[in-house]
Design brief:
The chain is mostly helical and about 200 residues long. About 70% of the residues lie in helices and about 0% in strands. The chain is built from ten helices and no strands. Helix 5 runs antiparallel to helix 6, helix 6 packs parallel to helix 9 and helix 9 runs antiparallel to helix 10. The radius of gyration is 19 Å and the shape is elongated.
Length: about 200
Amino acid sequence: MSRERGRPRSFDVDVALDGALKVFWKNGFQHASLHDLTEAMALSKPSVYAAFGDKEALYLKALGRYVDQHLGARIGVLEAEPDARRAVDLFLHAVAAMMTDPALPGGCFIINGTADLGGAATPVAVETALRAARADGEARLQQRLVRAQHDGQLGAQVPVEALAAAFATLMAGLGVLAKAGASQAKLDGVIALGMQLWPGAH
């Protein structure tokens, strides 16, 4: 093992990654400059490359951390609440609170990142990871709705795939509104109307 490889790092990897996460969350992949990234991470370019790899690898690590650190607890709410309608409602409000948290960049990392999809400068791996992350959110909703059917909280005739897609679309819209500066109160009002999609809510 080389001396360089064996030398212990003098910085906290998670703290540095959180710095990169905020830059990518705000700017997406294409518009996040290496200057902004290294400044937010308080690292030199060689240190970034040595610890995280290139910009593509760094973005994928930041996306993974976003899912783990910011979405994980919200998904936990969706899965833990026994009443399905309340579970979806609580989940959407928790996500809205995150999207409008003044300590965070605003909006949703995944939805903000989709602005780069189809761009020549966006690596295939980044596009694939973003599409997979968005699809996973919808799949989690669908799984919860299927569970609700099994529990008798939704009728067997309810099209859970379409309903999950509708709630996922609502969530994406919340991300766009939050990125544009909408308040949590505005997002909460949208969610209240959106929950009218729930069968039997009228």
